[in-house]
Amino acid sequence: MENAPPRPADLSAQIASAIRDAIVDGRLRVEERLPSEAELADQFSVSRPTVREALKRLAAQSLIRTQRGAAGGAFVNRLSFENAYAQQITTSTLLLSMNAVSFDTACEARFALERACAPLSSQRRSPDHLATMRAEIHRQAQPGLTDEAFCASDVAFHRALVDGAGNPVLSYQLAGAVEAMQPLMNMITFTARSRETIVALHTGIADALEARDVVETTQGLSALESETRKIAAGVFAARAARD
Questions:
Q1: Quick check: 5 pLDDT over 70?
Q2: pLDDT tens for residues 100-113?
Q3: Which of these, 204, 140, 236, 125, lies nearest to 171 by C-alpha position?
Q4: pLDDT for the residue 1
Q5: Angle, CA 153 vertex, CA 148 and CA 154 arms, to 5°
Q6: Spatial contact of 61 and 22, defined as CB atoms under 8 Å apart
Q7: How many CB atoms within 10 Å of residue 206?
């Protein structure tokens, strides 16, 4: 039985992978212009539409950008951590939902990662990070705040704590932990939790960060984890009783 010839989609994926590898290992540098479509077609022995599809794949990953005009073409893009946050959050959300990660597993991971940021954040947090956390605490205390807005404020509070570590690699890595796991946990606990308790715990964490107290910051996060687990246990018990 003869092997079927590679499909154009397979070829475009292989070409995109080869160019991506060249970017990763430095053979193609940031801002460097890629060979023309015709040159790439000759290099890979494929048609220009196949090359065009490969370039579309790379552009969708923000690895390259295209420019029109006499000085145009495809150029290696400079990725930023901030621009990569959305992809990290989307990937984390999909992994959690597709693999049915348990509440306990998500909670354990999220707070363990955030506690790891506590020492750096205690040392490096800026007045702006503290101002953001205080603003979110004030927002969370408003009686007319919807559950959806409270959950969004909760995420913003913890995002500021993580960003306060002053390490873009940590901020990127924890984007999924805070902005994918936190909403997952909020969906389960928001109907049963006491907003006053959460506000008090958040206030204690912000106070500890302002005092640059690593121990109190870490203990505050541990207390918040204990409260979150307690609420979730009650929610799950109530569901089991109804079933």
A1: no
A2: 778 888 889 889 98
A3: 125
A4: 35
A5: 95
A6: no
A7: 23
Smallest CA-to-CA distance from 231 within 182, 183, 178, 191 is with: 191
- Kindly list the structural domains of the chain, giving each domain's residue range(s) and its CATH number in brackets, ordered by start: 8-76 (1.10.10.10), 81-242 (1.20.120.530)
pLDDT attached to residue 83: 72
Structure tokens belonging to residue 110: 């999220």
**pLDDT value of position 206:** 97
- pTM for this structure? 0.73
Q: How many CA within 13 A on the CB side of residue 120?
A: 17
Q: Cα separation of 195 and 84, whole Å?
A: 32
User: Per mean pLDDT, which of 28-32, 87-91, 96-100, 209-213 is the most reliable?
Assistant: 209-213
Report d(CA 242, CA 239) in Å as an integer.
5
Determine the Cα–Cα distance for residues 233 and 188; give it in Å rounded to an integer.
Answer: 10
Q: Half-sphere exposure of residue 138, counting CA atoms within 13 Å on the CB side?
A: 6
pLDDT at 3 exceeding the cut of 60:
no
